[in-house]
Amino acid sequence: MRIIVVGGGLAGVRAVESLRGKGFQGELTLVSAEGHRPYDRPPLSKAVLMGETDDTTVDADWDSLGVRLLLGESATGLRPGTGRGGTLATTAGEMAFDGLVIATGAEPIRLPGDGGQHVLRTIEDARVIRDRLTEGARVVIVGAGWIGAEVATAAAKRGCAVTVVEAADTPLANAIGPEVGALTVPWYAEAGVELRTGVKVAEVEDGGLALAGGGRIEADLVLVGVGVRPHLEWLDGSGLLVERGIVTDEAFRTSVGTDVRSDIVAVGDCAEWWSRRYGRRLLVEHWDTALNAPSVAAATLLGEDASYDAVPYFWSEQFGRMVQYSGHHPGSERLVHRGDPSEGKWAVCWLTGDRLDAVLTVDRPRDLAQARRIIAAGTPVDPDAVADPGVQLRQAVR
After folding, report:
1. Against a cut of 0.90, is the pTM above it?
2. How far apart are CA 16 and CA 37, in angstroms?
3. Phi, psi of 341 (to 5 degrees)
4. Do the beta carbons of residue 255 and residue 235 sit within 8 Å?
5. How far apart are CA 10 and CA 231, in angstroms?
C-alpha cells in the first residue's frame, strides 16, 4: 500500500507519525513545497521575530519513520481513481497512491498594489521581517488580528515606530466580536503602538499605504495580516467537494461528487470538517487542530472507525499578555464578564442558557483549563458563579 502526505506543515508531520504509530508499514511519501524539513509556525511571530531563535524545525525522527521526503516539490493536480486510490500530479512527476492525506494548509491574503508588502507564513518570511525591524523603522501593519498584534508586539519591543491599521472598529472583531475586541485597545497605547481603527486600505504603494477615501501612511515596512485562504487551486478539476475549504465529514473523509472517499482525507488549515458537537462544518486554522486531528485522519485512511470532535483552542502572546480561547461562540445567547480588564487579568465567557459555549482568558490559565474541560463535557454551569472571578470555574458546575 502506498500513502502520500501532501503538505510539510505540522498537520503533515503528525499524519506521518500517526500512520507509522498505528502500524502502517507500506510505502510512505511526504511532499512539501518548502525546501527544508518541516518546522513549527507559532514561534515565527514570537521568538523568531524577537531574535530568540532562528530554527523551529519539528523534532521528528525521519530515519525511524521511514518516509520518503520530497522537499521543494508541490502538488499540481489530483486524479482520484474509481473506487480507491488515484494519481497525484507534482512538480516531481506523477505519483500513484492507494491513500492520500491532503494537508496543504493556507496562504496569506495579500492586498492590491505594486508597493512592497510582507506576509508572515514561512520561516523565510519571519527572517526577512525580523531583519527589517530596526530601531526607528516605520512599520505599518494592516490588520489588528492575532498575527497583526503579535508582529506589533515584536516590532515595538525592537524600537520601531509602529502603526496598526484595522478596517473594523476594534481589534479582533471577526474573531471574538467588537465588545471583547474593544477591551484590547488600551494594550496598543501602552506598548507605544498607534492603532487606527475603521480605516480601510485602497492599495499598497511604494513607501506606504494609500487609504480608501484619500490619505496615505508612510512606511519603511508594510506587513499585511488580514487572514489566510486554504491552498486549494491545485485541486481544480479533481472533483473533490470544496467550499470554504475541502469539505470532509467528522472522520476527515472527502467527497468526489456523491462518493465519500475514505482513501482521500484532508486535515489541517485546508479542511472544513463536520463537527457533531456544533452541528456545522468548522474551518479551524490553528495549531491545536493541526496537532491533534491528523491521528483521526490516519485512522480513517487505515480503515479504522474514528471521528474528530474536539473543542477548538488557540492562544496568542501579545503586548506581554497570554490570551487563550477555547470553544465556539457564534450563536451564543449571552456574554459574561469575569474580572475587571483594568486590573490586568480577566476573562469572558459565552453562554447559552446554562451551557458554557466558549471562553477567552487574559493571563488566567486556570480559567482556561477548567473551562475547556467543562465545554468538552457539556456540563451545565451557574451563570452567576461564572461571573464571579473569585469562584473557580470548576466550582460553578451545577
Report:
1. yes
2. 13
3. -55, -30
4. no
5. 15
What's the residue count for the chain? 398
Other C-beta atoms lying within 10 Å of the C-beta of residue 237: 9
pLDDT computed for residue 85 by the predictor: 96
Helix or strand (DSSP H, E) at 264: strand 259-266
Has residue 386 got a pLDDT over 90? yes
What amino acid is encoded at 308 in this protein? Answer: Y
SS3 content of the chain, % helix, strand, coil (to 5): 25, 35, 40
Which residue type does 54 have?
A: D
| Spatial CA neighbour of 292 closest among 17, 6, 8 | 17
Averaged pLDDT score across all residues of the chain: 96
Check: CB of residue 266 under 8 Å from CB of residue 252.
yes
Angle at the Cα of 363 from the Cα atoms of 359 and 367, rounded to 5 degrees: 40
Average pLDDT on 242-264 reads 96
Residue 84 in grid coordinates? 480507491
> How distant is the alpha carbon of residue 340 from its chain centre?
29
Rounded to an integer, what distance in angstroms lies between the CA atom of residue 320 and that of residue 330? 28
CA distances from 264 to 3, 94, 243 (A): 10, 17, 17
CA-to-CA distance for 69 and 316, rounded, in angstroms? 31
Q: Give backbone dihedrals phi and psi of 109, rounded to 5 degrees, phi first.
A: -80, 135
The per-residue pLDDT for 171 is 98
Q: Computed from CA positions of residues 377, 382, 387, 390, in that sequence, does the dihedral angle turn out positive or negative?
A: negative
Percent of the chain with pLDDT over 70: 100
The partner residues of 216 in beta bridges, in order of sequence, read 210
- Could you tell me the three cell numbers for 69? 521526503
d(CA 326, CA 277): 14
| Location of C-alpha cell 473569585 | 390
Grid look-up 494537508 returns 103
Q: Quick one: pLDDT band at residue 217, thresholds 50, 70, 90?
A: very high
User: Distance (Å, rounded) from C-alpha 65 to C-alpha 19?
Assistant: 9
Cell of 245: 475549504
Residue 228 and residue 214: Cα distance in Å, rounded?
A: 27
Question: Measuring CA to CA, how many Å separate 224 from each of 200, 228, 279?
Answer: 13, 11, 33
The helix (run of H) or strand (run of E) holding residue 21 is helix 10-21
- The cell numbers describing 298, all together, are 490516519
Nearest to 224 by CA among 114, 120, 132, 105: 120
Predicted confidence (pLDDT) at residue 257 exceeds the cutoff of 90:
no
**Set of cell numbers at residue 353:** 442558557
